[in-house]
Amino acid sequence: MRFKALKKILSGTVSALMIAVSMPTSFSVHADDQQDKGNVGGYDWEMWNQNYTGTVSMKPSAGSFTCSWSGIENFLARMGKNYDSQKINYKALGDIVLSYDVEYTPRGNSYMCIYGWTRNPLMEYYIVEGWGDWEPPGNDGVDNFGTATIDGRTYKIRKSMRYNQPSIEGTKTFPQYWSVRTSSGSRNNTTNYMKDSVTVSAHFDAWSKAGL
Known about the structure:
The chain is mainly beta. It has one domain: Jelly Rolls (Sandwich), CATH 2.60.120.180. It is built from one helix and 14 strands, in the order ββββββββββββββα. The chain has one helix at residues 200-209; strands at 2-6, 14-21, 34-40, 43-49, 55-61, 64-70, 75-82, 97-104, 110-118, 123-131, 142-150, 153-167, 170-181, 192-199. The strands form two sheets. A nine-stranded mixed sheet has the order 3-4-7-2-9-10-13-12-11, covered by helices on one side. It has a five-stranded antiparallel sheet with strand order 5-6-1-8-14. The longest helix has 10 residues, at 200-209. It catalyses: Endohydrolysis of (1->4)-beta-D-xylosidic linkages in xylans. Belongs to the glycosyl hydrolase 11 (cellulase G) family.
């Protein structure tokens, strides 16, 4: 997978473009896992590989990264901005737009999304642009809140809960808010060239309008 350009990044506390493969809807790091992270050119990046299984790689640079995986259990790669120190409401940042240019080849349970957290309230969010053969977040314990049209694309608005799970504030109970495209921007077992922009602040507004 090749992520070519991250032009303007997001609101919230921690925000990133993320590739997840065979992932649960939240994850925790254990001693047996492979985890690499750092900062390059003002962008935070992270790679996580459960149980050091298979072969993975992530090559970050300022505002872009490439990654690959094979024979894994669960794997993610992500890059973005951390606004935690500013402690401001997302509206204070104005229109927040992420532009992406991605070469993405999903094989099975994989998805590409914009991902992040907020504090006060504590919330984890996903804006899903494409997936392989499984549409996240599934249907188990997930509530539906209609649809919203943003940037000319229609998204399902969904909510799930995580109980006593790892978060940016330690083990907590917190909601997950989801915007999932009604049709995937990618096809399974195909190299997809995906280029678009996402008005992230409009998704926050849509979640609020839906009562989340």
